[in-house]
Amino acid sequence: MKILSAPFVSSNRRSGAKTISLVLAVVAFAFVPVARAVPSPDPNPFYPPSVDLAPQPAGAILQARSFALYGLPLPVTAWQVRYRTSDTNGSPIAGTATVLVPNWLWLGPGQRPLLSYQIAEDSLGTQCAPSYALRGGWDLGAANTYIDTLFIAEALRRGWAVVASDYEGPDSRFLDGVNSGRAVLDGIRAARALAPGGVGPASPIGAWGYSGGAFATLWAAQIQPEYAPDIRFAGITSGGVPADWPATTQGVDGTVQAGLAMLVLIAIAKNEPNSGVPELLNERGRIALAEDASACGPDFIVKYDNAHVDDFATVPDVLSHPAFRAALDRQELGGSAPVTPMYLYHSTTDDVVPVAGFTDLVGRYCAQGADLTSVHSPLPGHNVAALGEAAGAMGFLADRFAGIPVAPGCHSR
Q1: Sign of the four-CA dihedral 133, 138, 143, 148
Q2: Range 11-243+332-412: architecture per CATH
Q3: Torsion (CA) 267, 89, 186, 400 in degrees, nearest 10
Q4: Are 46 and 63 contacting, i.e. CB atoms less than 8 angstroms apart?
Q5: How are beta strands 92-102 and 114-118 bridged, if at all?
Q6: pLDDT in tens, 315-358
Q7: Residue intervals in the chain for CATH 3.40.50.1820
């Protein structure tokens, strides 16, 4: 990722910022956190609810602890925060978020900006959650956290605070838009309540996510007016947006990315036992559901390389079955347009999420009156665009944090 200038950081603070970027980049590329003796989330006593959640307001802090990011002596103060949120059904649950603040004063205008950064969990187990990896826990399933460290490091280098929520929740509900959106919004509320290092009620708030992180980011933006009117986003960026789930699952089926189609199938069967999808599984599919109900995304990719989903189903073309399609329809973005300026980007040759769904989503948002800049990137493929288009996403957020207005309406770039 291109490292841009930091106008609000002095020379001494620039040194600390470079330390963050360089060290965290090494960690990201090595995929080996320093502190491996970190208890996994499930037996870790920090994670289970310890209080009656019902009386607590949304975003209320239940517990907080500081820790060393990746177990390294970095100029960053880090907290793990448990907070009250709600699942899709409205039941109170305990969420977990990681809050990061660089160890120097914010010298820009106003209060220190807060970036809600959604890492692509894409998994079914708590050991895959970002909070576990950021604390120094090691699991192959947390590879996306290590990769996204590059983007988090750049946000910290600019002096921004970062909150990264485990938005899938304590039950690791991959592909549950409302659950994810509520966890993101309440994670922001918890970070503001913690008020670390210059973050306050007037801090401009942004949100960013790529791929699975974009799914959570945009669901949060869509439900924000009703669920969290107290949160006003300055701007939102998202890339590699998972729009049109049927096209995505069918496109990867039988390829090296077939594990994504299996992840979606198992997630729906796990999350929605009354959807009719579990009944579509044959014996091999039921074994997969039992074995992989808490597996991480990379585990699916390795295990189901070039697999065909129909081999796990009792019906042909299960990805087009009405029960499966109905479950996916409930998770599609675009039901309402966010009221926040957005910058959305997607590779025209994305090899994981077909670009046609992105184009359609942009059209639906624009038809509903969104203020949106869309980028159909010529960069080749899902992963290359994630890196190559990040500078534009970061620049858009920086302008919003600086109070620079956007031209209303929809614009393509």
Answers
A1: positive
A2: 3-Layer(aba) Sandwich (3.40)
A3: 70
A4: yes
A5: unpaired
A6: 999 999 999 999 999 999 999 999 999 999 999 999 999 999 99
A7: 11-243+332-412
CATH code, residues 245-329: 1.10.260.130
Cα–Cα dist 316/309, whole Å: 9
Residues 43-84: pLDDT tens digits?
A: 776 776 667 888 899 999 999 999 999 999 999 999 999 999
**Residue 15, number of CB atoms within 10 A of its CB:** 12
Tell me how many degrees the CA angle 197-203-206 measures, rounded to the nearest 5. 110
> Considering only CA atoms, which of 65, 62, 66, 64 is closest in space to residue 85?
62
Query: What are the backbone dihedrals phi and psi of residue 234, each rounded to the nearest 5 degrees, phi first?
Result: -80, -35
Find out whether 303 and 263 touch, Cβ atoms under 8 Å: no
pTM of the entire predicted model: 0.91
Of the chain, the end-to-end C-alpha distance in Å amounts to 20
Taking the C-alpha atoms of residue 190 and residue 196, their distance in angstroms, rounded to an integer, is: 11
Q: Which residues pair with 96 in a beta bridge?
A: 82
Tokens of 7: 């106008």
* 3-state DSSP percent of the chain in helix, strand and coil, to 5: 40, 15, 40
d(CA 15, CA 21): 10
Reported as type and span, the H/E element at residue 307 is none
| Separation of alpha carbons 20 and 79, rounded Å | 16
Q: Count other Cβ atoms within 10 Å, centred on residue 299.
A: 21
CB 312, CB 265: distance < 8 Å: yes
pLDDT at 144 over 90: no
The DSSP H or E segment spanning 311 is: none
Domain with CATH 1.10.260.130 in the chain: 245-329
Distances (CA, A) of 249 to 252, 259, 308, 315, 402: 6, 9, 11, 16, 39
